[in-house]
Design a protein that fits this description.
The complex is a heterodimer of chains A (317) and B (480).
Chain A (H helix, E strand, L loop, with lengths): L1 H33 L6 H26 L7 H14 L9 H24 L4 H20 L9 H8 L1 E2 L2 E2 H19 L1 H11 L1 H6 L4 H27 L10 H11 L11 H20 L4 H23 L1
Antiparallel strand pairs in A: 1-2
Chain B lengths: L14 E5 L6 H8 L10 E3 L2 E3 L4 H6 L2 E4 L11 H5 L15 H15 L14 H14 L4 E5 L7 H16 L3 E5 L3 H7 L2 E6 L2 E7 L5 H9 L17 E10 L3 E9 L3 E6 L5 H8 L7 E6 L2 E3 L4 H6 L2 E4 L3 H5 L6 H5 L8 E2 L3 E2 L1 H14 L16 H13 L5 E5 L7 H16 L3 E5 L3 H7 L2 E6 L2 E7 L5 H8 L4
Parallel strand pairs in B: 1-6, 1-7, 4-5, 5-6, 11-18, 11-19, 14-17, 17-18
Antiparallel strand pairs in B: 2-3, 7-8, 9-10, 9-12, 12-13, 15-16, 19-20
Classes of the chains: A mainly alpha (317), B alpha/beta (480).
Chain lengths: 317, 480
């Protein structure tokens, strides 16, 4: 009796910790069985390329949400970075490094503004980033007069379109960002401070943590990553459209939350977010392959997001 | 198993104190009675009828209501809205709240219990003590026959406690039974008729309060004799290590001056709201002073942030460990090393887990923190162990000047004794201890010297030989 209840508890604890990983394996398994094109190598490449943009943004979003914050501006910042970067990426104008650096810097600047307003002026992250979402989108439209930036150099287009040893460059960039995220969040003092601020900001402050710096750092990093995602996206579609990235913040937030990071802060992991990103990506891809109409896809996606979080919550009780 | 074979018999119109260390099972028992937790076995009888309490609503319907230790009012609503939450008086045949009637009913309840709070005030504008009174009125308003009070005086002092006791007596006279949970011995002896002691989830004994004295009670609770709760502090008093001169923050405190020597245990007494916590938070850089100086080892310093205070080897063990002391969602290790991470990092950033783990383990052992391992989430620890985690965090910094704000609030006697021992050891190591406490016993048992604050001003200073319970109370009430 005693033994059985222990075994049950252990199993329950195991599932509550790794449930989301099983959910992913299950989802991928079902799709692999039902859809022959899903299980091809080229489709795996395809998925990796598709998830990379959301993945890069979601890494930053994970840190933001662990601090009990939110960043709604990432989609617009992505678009602004994309149009500014591509405007420096016409053929035979600059070295490749110039548009890349400028794109990331634009994102970094937007994120820093978010962070400073949130940390120093004590404004709600929701409000600040909602404002930035609108402003960045507006600036992107003004900067381009509403028209996409076209005629980009071949090296720039390689970033999103090229591959090495069958691995698409965007997937490699995503992978590098994952490593960076794991390093920052789980192996540095800054990462520990991110958890401390999200778990109890006041206690962190009393313990001597410079909470303002942590918050600014987190939003700045997220902005820079949105900038990087803007470069990857614009190079993949070979243009810099000012209207792109609408709703991307919601995909990123969904991935983070599916991955078990708590919106109330202090709890979460990069590994969880990776699985969240993959679940969303595999779902989109699989439903496409199964010829599910995009209208139905939205319904399925919404249900799965809520279901994932519901299961996670159940498991944790 | 949190509770095993426990019995409790409460008579009508009696105050029945429930005692035991943290983790003894008091809360679990009360949660079962108030319907928050379901029992695995046993029976509950009310007026000789067996009853099942399946939900908090069922408990209320049976006339059992509970006042929780952590007050949880809806702060944005008014006093009367809070009292009638879920049972608002409505106009007939409608669902529209009759605010006037609600207000009148509140006034009537307040009148009955001699409470003078404006029913239209926002809950968030009340003092903690007033919120406590509102909670009591609310509990009574359910026509309760049994009221469970969990540490009702943990947030109030002096006059308000008297008021609470007056209310309890009038409830008694109406035949209402009170189950009273508290760690404060003097209160228990003053107010209770019968005492039941639990230990480790087991029933120990029930006896009339008159037949018990402190020592016997402690022995029953702890299961071993604490011949001396307070250790003798055998420390050498050295140079003045810490000095505050004319510290002022308008509206909070004025012209506060005191000196503390190395190896001294210095007490800061006073009623709640006298400004004790505010003075120490200012010293620690959490607030900006309007005037005054702070000197450490004779040199004037400016402490504009907690980080600066920590660099000057100060530590602040805050009054409210859950609000300001701990990250409840993080592990024991992550809490212990938080303010000292730099010394476990390469290049100031890259964490060295092995060294960090060793340090956390060492502190856990030194302070005898009862946790499964360093990875246990702090939220799941008992209050005493949580407080030890806060202490461990600060001791890891090897501070010279240690400020403890109500270091034993809400923790049981066993853990208290351990904390007193740690404080004595720290003083013996030549550190400077400043302790804020509302418990006079604690001040008198440990401190070499005490300064009493009243309304933000120093009202008296006593050396160890000169203070008594009476003189300190008088100074704290401003009647010296």
């Amino acid at each position: 009796m005693e033994l059985r209840s222990n075994a049950w508890q252990t199993t329950a604890a195991f599932f509550s910790k790794y449930g989301i990983y099983f959910a992913f394996v299950l989802l991928a398994g079902i799709l692999a069985i039902t859809s022959p094109p899903f299980r091809t190598l080229s489709n795996v490449e395809n998925i990796l390329q598709q998830v990379s943009v959301n993945g890069i943004i979601a890494m930053g979003m994970t840190l933001v949400i662990i601090t009990a914050g939110i960043d709604l501006s990432v989609g617009s910042v992505l678009a602004l970075s994309a149009v500014v970067a591509t405007s420096f990426a016409h053929p035979d104008e600059h070295l490749l490094i110039v548009p890349v650096a400028i794109g990331i810097l634009v994102g970094l600047a937007c994120g820093t503004v978010n962070g400073v307003l949130i940390a120093k002026k004590r404004l709600a992250p929701f409000i600040v980033t909602l404002g930035m979402m609108t402003v960045a989108r507006g600036v992107a439209l003004v900067y381009t007069s509403g028209r996409p930036v076209i005629n980009l150099s071949d090296p720039y287009n390689e970033i999103g379109g090229g591959s090495f040893a069958d691995i698409p460059f965007p997937a490699m960039i995503f992978f590098a960002v994952i490593l960076l995220g794991i390093f920052i969040l789980h192996f540095t003092r800054f990462g520990r401070h991110v958890y401390a601020v999200g778990g109890n900001e006041l206690a962190a402050k009393v313990s001597g943590v410079n909470t303002d710096r942590v918050l600014i750092g987190v939003y700045a990093l997220t902005g820079a990553l949105a900038g990087l995602a803007g470069i990857v996206l614009s190079s993949r579609i070979m243009s810099g459209p000012p209207a792109t990235g609408v709703g991307y913040e919601l995909d990123a937030i969904a991935a983070v939350v599916i991955g078990g990071t708590s919106l109330s802060g202090g709890v979460g992991s990069i590994a969880g977010t990776i699985v969240g990103v993959l679940i969303i990506g595999v779902m989109n891809n699989g439903l496409d392959l199964l010829n599910v109409s995009s209208y139905w896809q939205q319904i399925v996606k919404g249900v799965i997001i809520v279901l994932a979080v519901l299961l996670d919550k159940k498991a944790k009780q | 198993m949190a509770l095993n074979g426990v019995q409790l018999k409460v008579a009508r119109g009696e105050v029945h104190a429930l005692l035991g260390e943290n983790g003894a099972g008091k809360s679990t028992l009360m949660k079962i009675l108030s319907g928050l937790v379901q029992k695995d076995g046993g029976e509950i009888y009310l007026d000789e009828n067996q009853v099942e309490i399946k939900s908090p609503k069922a408990a209320l319907d049976l006339g059992i209501s509970m006042i929780h230790q952590e007050l949880n009012p809806v702060r944005a609503m008014t006093v009367s809205e809070n009292i009638f939450l879920g049972k608002e008086p409505c106009f007939r045949f409608t669902n529209v709240v009759n605010r006037r009637k609600q207000r009148e009913l509140t006034r009537a309840l307040f009148g009955e219990m001699d409470v003078s709070i404006n029913p239209d005030k926002k809950m968030s504008d009340l003092l903690v003590a007033e919120m406590q009174l509102v909670e009591i009125v609310k509990a009574v308003s359910y026509n309760a026959r049994i009221i469970i009070m969990d540490e009702p005086t943990s947030a109030i002092t002096g006059r308000e406690v008297e008021k609470l006791f007056a209310i309890i007596r009038s409830l008694k006279s109406k035949g209402i039974a009170i189950i009273y949970i508290s760690h404060k011995m003097d209160e228990i002896f003053r107010i209770s008729d019968t005492i039941t002691v639990l230990r480790d989830g087991q029933y120990v004994e029930t006896r009339p309060a008159k037949e018990l004295d402190r020592d016997t009670l402690v022995k029953l609770m702890v299961g071993r004799k604490i011949s001396e709760l307070f250790p003798k502090v055998k420390s050498e008093k050295g140079e003045v290590a810490f000095e505050v001169e004319g510290l002022t923050k308008h509206g909070l405190f004025e012209n506060i001056s005191f000196k503390v020597r190395k190896g001294e245990v210095f007490g800061l007494a006073g009623l709640m709201g006298a400004g004790r916590t505010e003075v120490m938070e200012t010293v620690f850089g959490l607030r900006r002073a309007d005037a005054g100086k702070i000197k450490i080892n004779g040199r004037e310093v400016r402490l504009q942030s907690p980080a600066a205070a920590i660099r000057h080897r100060l530590a602040l063990i805050t009054e409210d460990r859950q609000m300001k002391g701990l990250n409840l969602k993080a592990s024991v290790r992550d809490n212990i090393t938080l303010s000292n991470l730099k010394s476990f990092s390469r290049f100031g950033q890259v964490l060295q887990f092995q060294r960090e783990n060793q340090a956390a383990d060492a502190e856990m052992e030194k302070l005898r923190i009862k946790a499964r391992n360093r990875g246990q989430i702090v939220k799941t620890l008992s209050g005493g162990n949580q407080q030890k985690v806060v202490l461990a965090k600060w001791l890891l910094n090897n501070p010279e000047i240690i400020i403890l704000d109500e270091p034993t609030r809400g923790i049981d006697i066993g853990a208290k004794a351990e904390i007193y021992k740690i404080i004595a050891q720290l003083a013996e190591q030549g550190r400077t201890i400043i302790m804020i406490s509302s418990e006079l016993e604690e001040i008198m048992g440990l401190c070499d010297r005490v300064v009493v604050l009243y309304h933000g001003k120093v009202s008296a200073e006593f050396g160890r030989h000169a203070f008594s319970q009476e003189t300190i109370i008088k100074a704290a009430m401003g009647t010296n």
